[in-house]
Amino acid sequence: MIYELIFFSSLAICFYVYIGYPLLVAAIAAIHPRDVRRKAITPSLSVIIAAHNEEKVIGAKLENTLSMDYPSDRLEIIVVSDGSTDRTESIVCQYEKQGVHLLSLARCGKVQALNQGVAVATGEILVFTDANALLDSSALRRLVANFADPEVGGVCGNQRYRQIPTGDCISQGESLYWAYDKFIKRMESRVGSIVGADGSLYAIRRDLFVPIENPAQADDFAISMRVVTQGYRLVFEPTAVSYEEAPTSSTREFWRKVRVTNHSLRSLLDRKEAFNPWRTGFYALELLSHKVLRYLVPLLLVLVLITNALLIPASRVFQLLFLGQVLFYGGALVGYWLRHRSWGRWRLFYIPFYFCLANTAAFLGLLSLLRGERITLWQPHRDPCLAARKGVP
User: Fold this and answer.
1) Tens digit of pLDDT for each residue in 34-64?
2) How far apart, in Å, are the Cα atoms of 332 and each of 164, 254, 339?
3) How would you classify the pairing of strands 201-205 and 125-129?
4) What does the H/E/C string look like for the chain?
């Protein structure tokens, strides 16, 4: 009886995380949507780009940012060099006559670099964007239109991946995941607030920025989450598009996800008041469902597999369920073996492979947190082909 209870309760939570919760927010969004009162406005903007050894992409990034469809006299561009040892700073200096400001720092980590960048920023709206993200020409206008609504304190842009024919099948899995995650973002935004922004492109009101004291946090999540805890909405703007190269290495993406899990959980531990529904309302349930329970799924999947194995003699239903798990995880192994081949791009293989990769990374990220590991520095890995790109598709 106890095995059945553990099996069904663990399975139910996994079902809720991936299917039940998205259906819940979609239902609430359909019944009681909260619109955003958008209007064409041009507040002063400070675009802050943290960079560490970004010589391959920083030139294309600045060309792209300077070409934005936004009044140049209302646009401030700040590049914060976090101890760069390559040509990043010399490249940025070439754009100083066009109004780009370089803030050169000793190596301190991305969180501290952003804190320093905001300290010298003068814009009413702070726009954060990654050095490898190229923006659609209208992205800034579409992003800031949401701030015409006084209830909106932060806006997350829409990150899209370029598909790259080289590398392994991780790009297919990541693209599918982003499509799923952006559906949830749309629904959360219609309900009230999304859980957190993505570092590719997001913006907040200047007076809502709270310096992040703990550098071992996910900067985008930590900064944007504080918008909601201060009583404002954090919304998703699908028409404010940023483009990044899709990941091409499952190994590199795996360890990135381990770091993201560690950083995100530290951000959650630092903002416990966000889980108070009397303070943040439905957002508290969003955090629990979209973040906490999702990071616990790997442990629940282990419980489902073990208890299912113990229940095999009980009935044919448990035998079939166990067989289904074996086939799914077997498909993940085949997807791993075929990840560099065309067959590895079949959904039959890359979906279970990506699902297992993401959850294994979450498990290791959780373990690293429990061991007390603190990751404060960052080492970007960029595709060199971005350096030649001046625009977007």
Assistant:
1) 999 999 999 999 999 999 999 999 999 999 9
2) 22, 14, 10
3) antiparallel
4) CHHHHHHHHHHHHHHHHHHHHHHHHHHHHHHCCCCCCCCCCCCCEEEEEEECCCCCCHHHHHHHHHCCCCCHHHEEEEEEEECCCCCHHHHHHCCHHHCEEEEEECCCCHHHHHHHHHHHCCCCEEEEECCCCEECCCHHHHHHHHHHCCCEEEEEEEEEEECCCCCCCHHHHHHHHHHHHHHHHHHHHHHCCCCCCCCCEEEEEHHHCCCCCCCCCCHHHHHHHHHHHCCCEEEEEEEEEEEEECCCCHHHHHHHHHHHHHHHHHHHHHCHHHHCHHHHCHHHHHHHHHHHHHHHHHHHHHHHHHHHHHCHHHCHHHHHHHHHHHHHHHHHHHHHHCCCCHHHHCHHHHHHHHHHHHHHHHHHHHHHHHCCCCCCCCCCCCCHHHHHCCCCC
Instruction: Write out pLDDT tens, residues 221-231.
Output: 999 999 999 99
Q: Which two tokens stand for residue 134?
A: 């190229």
**At CA 234, angle to CA 228 and CA 236, rounded to 5?**
160
Bin 99: left if φ > 0, else alpha if -120 < ψ < 50, else beta: left
Q: Which two tokens stand for residue 4?
A: 């059945």
C-beta separation of 381 from 53 below 8 A: no
CA gap 265, 68 in Å, rounded: 35
What letter represents residue 106's amino acid?
A
pTM of the entire predicted model: 0.90
As beta bridge partners, residue 102 has: 79
Q: Which residue is associated with the tokens 């949507």?
A: 33
Cα–Cα distance measured from residue 153 to residue 234, given in angstroms and rounded to the nearest whole number: 6
